[in-house]
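Thread: "does anyone have the structure for this chain?"

Original post by V.I.:
We have the sequence but no experimental structure in hand. Need at least a predicted one for the grant figures.
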Amino acid sequence: MTPTARLHSVVPPYLLRAVADAAAELPRASSAARSALASLDDVQQSKHDHRVRPQGVSGVVDRSPQRTISDAHGSTTLPGTPVRREGAPDTGDPAVDEAYTGLGDTHAFWLEVFDRVSIDGAGLPLDATVHYGQDYDNAYWDGSRMVFGDGDGEVFERFTIAIDVIGHELAHGVTQYTADLLYQGQSGALNESISDVFGSLVLQYARKQTADEASWLIGEGLFTPRVHGVALRSMKAPGTAYDDPVLGKDPQPATMAGYVDTADDNGGVHTNSGIPNHAFYLAATAIGGNAWDGAGAVWWDALTSDTVTASIDFAGFAAVTVSSAASRFGDGSREHAAVEQAWREVGVLR
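Reply from O.Q.:
Generated one for you, tokens below.
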């Protein structure tokens, strides 16, 4: 029997609620946000078996991406009509072609950096649906495919714009097939953080950016110009991604001193993810160079370690990353010290 999983979406509920409450200032966006919030409660998709860890694949696995982009034509019926398959030329529809490119960039990252063939490690086809719903204010991974809304045009642009958003959502699939972290409390915040980490690394890899060159913003370009903000989240400085008179201020804490105890959003998974996000940023920039070669490799080793349980907390995951850094780079190495110090700076380790 397969468990049922809540969909993983890139826009947090607290931000959607702020938009939904701004009907006077943002009528179109408010209506769209209310619909997106309803979908977080209503859309349930079957998920693959718990803790799927492929140990080997029989036969020959196609290492090339196998992409299919479908068009929902403004409906909420999935998957929609296939409009671009692997190897087909640009369609001229920005959402279709951006989704196709983003899936390809994500596939290339996992294959070329970690020798992982697609998100399951076994060549899983990458499917996506664009033009989902009317002014739909979100993008999500439902356990088997990516789904992109077009945004409302007042607060959000179309959700295919940001490569890191595509990388973020597909990383939920990678987590699903590895540690399968429970989407609740600290393990849920780690689930969200790992998607931000690898979403950011997909973008950095595609742009050939070093850790020092990267913006460490998640969802840069999603806000329209009328919003006082640069992105959904900042790994470099959690709590500073936006500060808008209508939408409010980015609530993410950077350290455990600001940890939020709440029953909302599965125990604050989108809020408290700022803490492990900042730890990764600190480790990556202290190590320097390409973040996927340093801190990224350590986080990957931890995510695929048998010592990471589905319900692991921040301190437990931090300990695994410190051990992984020692194993990969050497006990007492610069990388090992950087990872340990990063977790100390955010207050997770003492």
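V.I.: this helps a lot. The longest strand covers residues 67-71.
O.Q.: and The chain is about 40% helix and 10% strand.
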